[in-house]
Amino acid sequence: MKHLMLASIIYAVLALVGGVFYREFTKLNGFTILSVVHTHYLILGMVFFLLLVLVEKNYSFINDKVRKYLLLYHIGLNLTVVMLTIRGVVQVLSLNVSSAVLFEIAHLILGISMVLVLISIRNCVKDSF
């Protein structure tokens, strides 16, 4: 449970850093397309892990299998945010670079791992009733 809380705090800090970067970088260049970096870390990072803290406290669903899913989730979330940042910087600077495939893979990893974690929670909650 401590790891979940730590993850939530780390993603809160990353969300704040991402928000400041987006605001200052886009303001300097006259764009506002990097705002999703901040919200991805805030919602999919901080809020997701805060909710997992509450679920873990009540149902103790985390085992070795779920830890692997959460590691995959961390990788997917951070790769998604890195790709969002790269995509936003490329657009702001009007560079001609395509990162669509890696961006889609990052979202796929994030989505699959989220579903696996939710299925694990469902199985645990189902067993407790």
UniProtKB/TrEMBL annotation:
Tagged with keyword Transmembrane helix: yes
Membrane-spanning segments: 33-55, 75-94, 100-121
Keywords per UniProt: Membrane, Transmembrane, Transmembrane helix
Cited Pfam families: DUF2871
The keyword Transmembrane belongs to this UniProt entry's keyword annotation: yes
Identification of the protein by name: DUF2871 family protein
Native source organism of the sequence: Holdemanella biformis
Top-level taxonomy: Bacteria, Bacillati, Bacillota, Erysipelotrichia, Erysipelotrichales
